[in-house]
Amino acid sequence: MIKLIHTADLHLGSPIAGLPEDVSSELREELFTTLAKICELAESERADAILISGDLFDEPSPSRSVADRTFALLGRAGVPVFISPGNHDYMSVHSVYRRQDLPENVRIFRSERIEKIPCGEFDVYGAGFAAPVVERELLQGFRAEQGRHSVMVLHGEADVSSAYYHAVSPRDIAASGLSYLALGHIHARSEAVRAGDTLFAYPGCPMGRGFDETGEKGVYIVEIEERARARFVPLGARKFVTIESGERAVPDGFERDLVKLVLTGESEPIDTEALARELAPRAFYVKVVDRTRLPKRVRELAAEDSLAGAFLRALDAVRAESGDSGNAESEALAELAARYGLAALDGEEAPL
Ligand SMILES: [Mn+2]
Questions:
Q1: CA–CA separation, 13 vs 24, rounded Å?
Q2: 352 within domain boundaries
Q3: Tell me: the pLDDT tens digits for 285-296?
Q4: Domain that holds residue 18
Q5: Model pTM greater than 0.90?
Q6: What is the whole-number distance in angstroms between the Cα of residue 116 and the centre of ligand 1?
Q7: Cβ contacts of residue 298 below 8 Å, gap of 6+?
Q8: Which of 78, 181, 229, 290 places its Cα 20 to 30 Å from the Cα of 21?
Q9: pLDDT in tens, 137-165
Q10: Is residue 220, in this structure, part of any structural domain at all?
């Protein structure tokens, strides 16, 4: 049996922006811990190789320390590591993958053309991005050498309708003769599916870097006997989690995680920063977003003979004149305008 660890899209060296600096720096560090866990998993599972399907780094030439730490970890992995450069860590002139001192077990597919590297009893195929965008459909006409098991490591999109990132079509995958196609690029994990006899999957990024990469992350362990099968293994890194709730609370169980609490329902304007500070001990990081609507009581102010009433009536008149009241976007905008205005009349800060 052949056993492989399949990962992609670590984006090592990425700044992880939009968070407080101490939180970002902790996460930047945890990216290396995650890579170390992947290497340890390869050892404990007695895997035959690690496949990294692109965007190992966030850019073609990461800092010396990011590159050195990465290759030191991969060099100690104890198994061959195959890397397909992606659209972020493409093969630029100054690409980190051109270094002469890479560990011996690290093999990189530097060419845009598909190459084959034999690995014991199976073959590993691959290709790399030469530029941030590659519009060619890569697998067209490809057929792996038969009689041996073969896998391919590739940063690309299994969707020919968006053709900028090594598009591969299910028809070409089915005709490839590969046992497994290890894809990268899509940061959300896909199920492992079959096209013909070829299994293919996106493992997704092994650790989230923002609230657009939520939930449990990990790698695929791929086992090939007659055919390939893949099972997802979570790596236990901190998770980004979005919770929509009417309650101004973070439930139990998120102490290690980054939580975005989206408040819904009806409420007076909420001081989101103060609430985030109050909830901070409930998670590694808490962000509060106010998506509540003003309570009826406040809306009834419009009928009052007061400055607030006059303001709300004027706002209604503007909305009626604009003619697009009723659609969700303009309703949300009107809601925000009402909140700003009422807060200002109360001498408060804008409720953001
Ligand atoms: Mn990526």
A1: 11
A2: no
A3: 999 999 888 887
A4: 2-234
A5: no
A6: 23
A7: 268, 338, 342
A8: 290
A9: 788 899 999 999 999 999 988 876 766 67
A10: yes
